[in-house]
Amino acid sequence: MSVKRIGVLTSGGDAPGMNPCVRAVVRTALYHGIECYGIRRGWNGLISGDIVRLDETKVSHIINRGGTILYTARSKEFMTEEGQKRAVSTCHFLGLDSVVAIGGDGTFRGALALSKYGINVVCIPATIDNDICCSNYSIGFDTAANTAIECIDKLRDTMQSHERCSVVEVMGRNAGFLAMYVGLAVGATAVLVPEEPIDFERDVIEKIRQARFNGFTHYMIVVAEGAGSAADIAQQIKDAIDLDPRVTVLGHIQRGGVPTGRDRVNATKMGYLAVEKLLEGKTNRIICTSNGAFTDVDIDEGLSMVKRIQQTEVDVLQAMTGI
Ligand code: F6P
Whole-angstrom Cα distance, residue 281 to residue 285? Predict the structure, then answer.
């Protein structure tokens, strides 16, 4: 398998660190004397041929920038066989033999389809949700977590002054990895995630009562968006106990901002490895982390895996909130 021209795209929800990853793909390709093209607006750009030649100047000063210079989208058309065939024709027409796809599992499903048509594909996990089952880490999670933590620390100041209860909704779609991590980091009174069964009386009301009994006068409830809306939970608290909680939905603020050092370095390593894997003749792969080391798995295999909230996190949360 020869690699002559690589296309790189970002797809799905953006994540801080996508830019350093694009930069690493481009610089690694150039290092090996391979041409690199940016495909704009995710898979849509591959269907329409919306590509731009990338060289070192085009990716300079982006290692520290959130968002993605390539734009991103969730392509409905690419999910159809017709859309995929059009994308393959575009690859042939433009001479793109390989594609590095940076995004979440929706992006990977698209990449899998493309690889079945003979295009070399390597995927890189990038989503603030950190819900890629084959990888402990995904690009953007660290920055998003730190953004949420900073916001909640600010909220805590005013909650403390007014002796209030705060209910904060953290992103994550159907996953609670971000909420659990953030909840542990801010010392939340309770954390609700979709992966764990919720008994409202036991998991929220009792914890507030216990905290109050221990002398606390403000309470921070962190809820993953997939576990319910912060507004509903605040109302349930109000109905159950003499508190008038304030609601904060952190929303898309979590997706922006300067990528942390960790996200930049991991994005750079993963972008580098994606090109190296292509050069080794590999295709249909996801670059991932397992027990702190970088590795790669088949896309089909990666998509069939299941990821759970770490039992240690559940146990630690219970110990931190259960006294
Ligand atoms: O997958 C990333 C994510 O930010 C989720 O946490 C969230 O549910 C979703 O994307 C929001 O999507 P959109 O940007 O389309 O509103």
Answer: 11
Which H or E run contains 306? none
**Could you give the count of Cα atoms lying within 13 Å of 202 in the half-sphere of its Cβ?**
5
% of the chain with per-residue pLDDT over 70: 100
Q: Can you tell me which atom of ligand 1 is nearest the CA of 171? A: 6
Q: Probe ligand 1: pick from 14, 18, 130, 171, max atoms within 8 Å of CB? A: 171
pTM of the model: 0.97
Higher pLDDT, 322 or 82: 82
> Which residues sit with their C-beta closer than 6 Å to ligand 1?
13, 104, 127-129, 171-173, 225, 255
- % helix, strand, coil for the chain, step of 5: 45, 20, 35
pLDDT at 171 over 70: yes
Atom of ligand 1 nearest to the CA of 129: 6
DSSP class of residue 258 equals P
Whether 323 has a pLDDT exceeding 80, the answer reads no
8-state DSSP, 40 = P
Q: Are 100 and 16 in contact (CB under 8 A)?
A: no
Mutate to test the pocket of ligand 1, among 139, 141, 255 (most ligand atoms within 8 A of CB): 255
What confidence score (pLDDT) does residue 307 get?
96
Each residue of 204-243: b (16+ CB within 10 Å) or e?
Answer: bbebbeebeeeeeebbbbbbbbbbbebeebbebbeeeeeb
CB distance 12 to 72 below 8 Å: yes
How many residues in the chain? 323
State the Cα–Cα distance between residues 300 and 302, nearest whole angstrom.
Answer: 5
